[in-house]
Amino acid sequence: MRMDRLTLRFLIAVMLASVSLAALASSSVRVFTDGDSVETLIANIPQKARSKTNPVEKNPDATLAGRKLFEQHCAECHGENANGTKRGPSLNVPQLEQASSGELFWIITNGVVRSGMPSWSKLPEPQRWQIVTFLRGYSRY
Ligand code: HEC
Question: What's the pLDDT score for residue 33?
Answer without folding.
Answer: 47
